[in-house]
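User: Can you write out an input/output pair for a complex, sequences first and structure second?

Assistant: Here is one pair. Inputs:
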Amino acid sequence: MRAGKWQPADFAMKKAPSQARSRASVDAMVQAAARILAEQGYAGLTTNAVARVAGVSIGSLYEYFPGKEAIVARLVDDLLAETLAMLHGQLDLTDNRNDLSVAMRHFLRALHGVMRKHRRLLRVLVFQVPYLHQLPATVQLQRALQDVLQRGLEKAQQHYRVSIGPHTLYLMATSTGGSLLHLVLMAPPSMPHEPVIDALADRMVAWLLEGE
Amino acid sequence: MRAGKWQPADFAMKKAPSQARSRASVDAMVQAAARILAEQGYAGLTTNAVARVAGVSIGSLYEYFPGKEAIVARLVDDLLAETLAMLHGQLDLTDNRNDLSVAMRHFLRALHGVMRKHRRLLRVLVFQVPYLHQLPATVQLQRALQDVLQRGLEKAQQHYRVSIGPHTLYLMATSTGGSLLHLVLMAPPSMPHEPVIDALADRMVAWLLEGE
DNA sequence: TTCTAATCCGAGCATATACTCGGAAAAACT
DNA sequence: AGTTTTTCCGAGTATATGCTCGGATTAGAA
């Protein structure tokens, strides 16, 4: 068992499965990893456990992945794809609308929905996986969210007098992210989600329109 | 090596060191754990490594701690004590002032200072230690921060017309926390901290005073 | 000093985990 | 059918880590 630092290459697959059979095996491994992470945490994610839960042999696992880090990387790739699909779909829906307040609510609710759907897995990824921030998919997701926000603001500026200070974008992104993450991963069950999200959306809109 | 869930008792020390010699040993172990966490991450934190870095034997370590989780718990206890001391000192300073804007800036800057001082250690604690949220000190810190904010708002209400919606407290705490955490743990080095903190403080004050 | 309790020591055992390797089985290709 | 490539297998090896235990050493009490 190696301890310490990882090189980027550790996140890539050894080889791509070409036949349908092997593609199913790889999928089973990734799904098994997701289940183990959600149910037992990162400490429970051993290569042998993944193979057992996936119903394949340990040898097959190492045929495609150099280690468990690569499996996690692949899993995060899938989550990224799902999130991006939701994001673009949501943007198409609100593309015609010009109501900033409505658009903001829809955007935050959609984001919250994806996070909540995978909240047990997300909790482990965020709070336990040491190399999450170095994963290509993680970096890509951050860029995508930032881009969406950026474009949304530019679009809003065409219809409203929006005041954007030097650090507005950064503060809006980090504070909204902090509230959503806390709501999904750490808030007590008694906390009502929808009202809080709507209040957050109102707050962000008020921030932008404060000069009016 | 056990995997899975821990009971609360795992976070307590086996016995308290009574003589000065043993107290020094325990301190050395905790400091060693802090260094290892900051430099190598949670994966590098093995009981043998802690003993080696602390300059004591592995036997001595198990004399006082049931496992590495208890050492981490003790370490977080120390961080909690330092943070609470800072917090109360800061409150005493701003106790006489009635300027909400100034008080908010001082409070956020002080909080940011403590976080920044231990940022490498804090990053590992937050993003890698699986049981951080279950630690008594963590729970206590959250309560303390919430109390400070609550009291600050009540005090502000005596001098200003402060608008506090049903979820204002929660949203302020989580969004501010998210921004500060991101700033300290994840922001690129080019990001200027002080201006961002001041902008955040202004934003929070504007939120409270929006009805004026 | 003598006695008791606290402290310290570290080789060694038990276990868990990562990962290999030689070969069988299945699929695709000619 | 014959050949090649892909896929699958899982016992076994090397290594790392948690943790014990019998005994040496030191500090304080009587």
